Task: inverse folding
């Protein structure tokens, strides 16, 4: 491949330059101008934020008793059904390992979320869809 | 010998190739995956939705500490103003009046408005109303729930929460509507200010200590219509300030939802400037608790 030690040295320096280029790109991308998360959708929220959003919906539902409104509010959290979203949030909230030393969800909040879960189990969106 | 004069171009080529590889890795092989984001990074319309959800939950549970903690996650520069402005926008859109009410109630409960947010007097040059904000008031949205009802709903129901272990009673950010003496009209005048581009009814609510009072619901009636609005939703103009945009040719009457002295025969009235041009004046009303 290399005709002499000079060629080898050139290739070596060439690959060093490539490595340097990659390093420069990463320094630029990670340190100088790192990615800023803006304009993201609620579906990308961290699981604890999603759970808190579900809790908000459940708190509002408890007062309003409007399952359709709750489902509409939950729909921003992704493509899963509202019931699946609530169940995932409850699973997270129920597991004390998710919280470490922090205060876990109190029973009252869990009860509020389960109330919403029960309502969505009984809720039939087809019934609420107006005829064309 | 043949390679000796090629110079350092191969090094630059290597750098460029390296950068291209880096970009390919970053954009194609291992692109950025948006997960584990926080509410502050949400798109503006989703932030609005998140904020409305915080307000709806607050209206349901009355837990202001929890609402404040949640609002902090959005990292708004001035949560009070942001809430108030969103309440105005939502009212104007008319799609979710319950959200507008929740946002307004949370804004009112949230805290002191900025220090600059006072209406110094009802002197003619005192206020330059924001046309944008005033325009929102002119929508046909009717909010019929009274403040007294809303406050009654804000009873704490949960003793503890994940975000706020203890419940703190609602603070009073300024004077709030009380059960005391009814408000009476202290001043009513037509102000000719060419800086105000549309006919307005501007209201200032003061308590007996002449402190501005937020959260007072005012009801405007006209032939075939009714609308209501609250003081304190435009913090930049004062905690006790509210305004309503009039349609020329329509005669309005204004009263407090809680009762008291109504003001009748309010209509868009023209003023004349020194150069002879005509523009609409503004009715300024000051209500006070004796």
Result:
């Amino acid at each position: 491949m290399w005709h002499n030690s000079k060629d080898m040295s050139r290739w070596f320096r060439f690959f060093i330059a490539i490595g340097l280029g990659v390093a420069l790109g990463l320094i630029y991308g990670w340190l100088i101008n790192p990615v800023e998360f803006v304009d993201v959708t609620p579906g990308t929220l961290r699981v604890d934020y999603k759970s808190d959003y579900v809790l908000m919906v459940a708190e509002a539902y408890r007062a309003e008793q409007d399952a359709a409104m709750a489902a509409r509010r939950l729909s921003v959290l992704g493509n899963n059904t509202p019931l699946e979203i609530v169940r995932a949030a409850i699973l997270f909230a129920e597991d004390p390992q998710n919280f470490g030393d922090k205060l876990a969800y109190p029973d009252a909040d869990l009860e509020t979320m389960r109330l919403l879960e029960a309502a969505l189990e009984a809720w039939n969106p087809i019934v609420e869809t107006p005829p064309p | 010998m043949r390679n000796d004069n090629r110079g350092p171009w191969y090094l630059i080529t290597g750098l460029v190739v390296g950068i291209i590889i880096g970009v390919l890795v970053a954009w194609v092989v291992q692109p950025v995956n948006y997960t584990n984001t926080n509410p502050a990074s949400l798109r503006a319309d989703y932030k609005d939705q998140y904020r409305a959800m915080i307000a709806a939950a607050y209206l349901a549970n009355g837990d202001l500490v929890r609402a404040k903690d949640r609002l902090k996650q959005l990292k708004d520069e001035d949560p009070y103003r942001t809430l108030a402005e969103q309440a105005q926008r939502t009212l104007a859109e008319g799609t979710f009046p319950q959200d507008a009410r929740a946002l307004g109630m949370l804004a009112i409960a949230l805290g002191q408005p900025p220090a600059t947010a006072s209406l110094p007097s009802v002197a003619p040059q005192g206020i330059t109303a924001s046309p944008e904000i005033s325009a929102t008031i002119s929508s046909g949205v009717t909010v019929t729930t009274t403040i007294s009802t809303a406050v009654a709903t804000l009873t704490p129901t949960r003793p503890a929460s994940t975000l706020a272990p203890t419940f703190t009673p609602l603070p009073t950010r300024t004077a709030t509507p009380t059960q005391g003496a009814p408000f009476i009209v202290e001043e009513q005048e037509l102000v000719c200010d060419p800086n105000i581009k549309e006919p307005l009814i501007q209201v200032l609510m003061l308590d007996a200590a002449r402190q501005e009072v937020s959260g007072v619901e005012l009801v405007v009636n006209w032939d075939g219509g009714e609308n209501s609005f609250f003081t304190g939703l435009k913090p930049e103009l004062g905690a006790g300030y509210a305004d309503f945009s009039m349609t020329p040719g329509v005669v309005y009457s204004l009263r407090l939802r809680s009762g008291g002295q109504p003001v009748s025969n309010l209509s868009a009235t023209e003023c004349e400037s020194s150069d002879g041009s005509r523009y609409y004046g503004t009715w300024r009303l000051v209500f006070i608790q004796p």
About this structure: The mean pLDDT of chain A is 85. DSSP finds six helices and no strands in chain A. The two ends of chain A are 74 Å apart (CA to CA).
